[in-house]
Design goal:
Layout lengths: L2 H29 L7 E5 L11 H11 L13 H9 L4 E8 L4 E8 L2 E7 L2 E6 L4 E3 L9 E5 L6 H15 L8 E6 L5 E5 L5 E5 L4 H15 L10 E3 L7 E3 L3
Parallel strand pairs: 1-3, 4-7, 7-8, 10-11
Antiparallel strand pairs: 2-3, 4-5, 5-6, 8-9, 9-10, 11-12
Length: 249
């Protein structure tokens, strides 16, 4: 048999064999059942720090707004939509949805981390370090700095300054446990209330933060120890180069 004929026969056989294998695979694939979702697994890694949302609440949200995912083929589940639904909830900072080989739909939740609580009358809000405001939760209260009084929450510049103030307190070993409340007066001045002692500090507006806290530190180190007969009630640190102490306001 001529060599060229054998070559043609070999190529033809290879082509037919490949076609047969492809047809066999396609036939088998058509009879295989799609892999369906058999359950939902929820992970909230930062739940020890905050409990703004629980796994059962995440499940209720998805059951309400993306129902029917159990039993649905895994490749038909819209993971992006699930993430969009969850990310739209105020207490959730970021969600990640993905499927695993065990046919489970997995959702990992990162909660928002508040650094301050604003209380204005009966209305309250948390703010995270980005300035994002979200409502208080009925089932959980985070132990963060409290700011109450005449709060101008629609003033973004003021909000940014207050967040810097609160972060300064939180980052300080001295002031984090000492300052328990900040009140915004009607004129915009802040009053800082320490945990111990009768004095309150008239802080003024949330500006010149570091210099004002240095005055507060000086008060505790040099002025308060020398006052033995009666405690001061008000310590005004608003003005440059001055600490004004009064027994009564």
């Amino acid at each position: 048999m001529p060599r060229i004929v054998r070559h043609i026969i070999n190529i033809s056989f290879a082509v037919l064999l490949t076609a047969a294998l492809v047809a066999s695979y396609m036939l088998g694939a058509s009879h295989r059942k799609p892999i369906t979702c058999k359950g939902l697994s929820i992970c909230i890694p930062d739940s020890a720090a905050n409990q703004f949302i629980r796994p059962d609440e995440v499940r209720k949200i998805l059951d309400s707004e993306y129902s029917g995912y159990i039993g649905l083929p895994i490749d038909e589940i819209d993971l992006t939509k699930i993430e969009s639904i969850l990310d739209g909830k105020s207490a959730i900072y970021k969600s990640e949805a993905y499927a695993t080989k065990d046919s489970m739909l997995n959702v990992t939740i990162t909660q928002r981390k508040p650094i301050v609580r604003f209380q204005k009358g009966s209305k309250g809000f948390y703010a995270d370090e980005t300035g994002y405001l979200f409502p208080l939760q009925s089932t959980y209260a985070s132990h963060v700095q409290i700011v109450d009084g005449a709060i101008p929450l629609n003033n973004e510049e003021w909000l940014e300054r207050m967040i810097r103030l609160v972060r300064h307190i939180d980052d300080s070993k001295v002031w984090k446990d000492k300052i328990v409340q900040i009140t915004v007066e009607e004129d915009g001045n802040l009053t800082l209330v320490p945990r111990d002692g009768k004095e309150k500090f008239i802080f003024g507006h949330p500006t010149d933060i570091e210099s004002k806290f240095k005055k507060m530190e000086l008060y505790y180190k040099a002025i308060k120890p020398s006052k033995t007969d009666k405690d001061y009630r008000w310590v005004d640190i608003r003005f440059d180069g001055q600490i004004v102490c009064r027994e009564e306001k």
